[in-house]
Amino acid sequence: MKRLILAVLIALLLVGCGRAVTGDINFDAELREIEQHTLDFATGAGNIEEFRVFIEDFNDKLAEVDIEFAQLQRKANDLRLEGLSEMDYEKINESTSLQAQALEIYYEMKDAK
């Protein structure tokens, strides 16, 4: 039950990532996919290998952008993957905190455009 609650909290944190970004930086689709993977894990349907491939691809895209959002998002992605792989609730919670920080910066960037 605790696993489900934590995964749902992560997913709820990501709700609202669907706004479009004008300009060169737009990671809305990737953020929605993280949300979907998180919901899958919450319902017991998550596939860690699919998630691992997705996170590696997303992190590669983020590596091309030298902004604070990308750095925080990569840390959150890595920690979330590690936490879900090990079912380590502390890592999952920490990834949620990093995700919140990253999203705050992301939305500020979006609002500035």
What descriptors fit this protein?
mainly alpha, 77% helix, 0% strand
Briefly summarize what is shown.
It contains 5 helices and no strands.
Account of the 3D structure:
The protein is an all-alpha fold and 113 residues long. It has one domain (2-112). It is 77% helix and 0% strand. It contains five helices and no strands. The protein has helices spanning 2-14, 28-42, 48-63, 68-86, 89-112. α1 (2-14) packs parallel to α5 (89-112) and α4 (68-86) runs antiparallel to α5. It is globular, with a radius of gyration of 13 Å.
| Mean pLDDT across residues | 84
The total of beta strands comes to: 0
Succession of helices and strands: HHHHH
- Portion of residues in beta strands equals under 5%
Please give the count of helices: 5
Strand and helix map with partners:
Blueprint (H helix, E strand, L loop, with lengths): L1 H13 L13 H15 L5 H16 L4 H19 L2 H24 L1
Helix pairs in contact: 1-2, 1-5, 3-4, 4-5
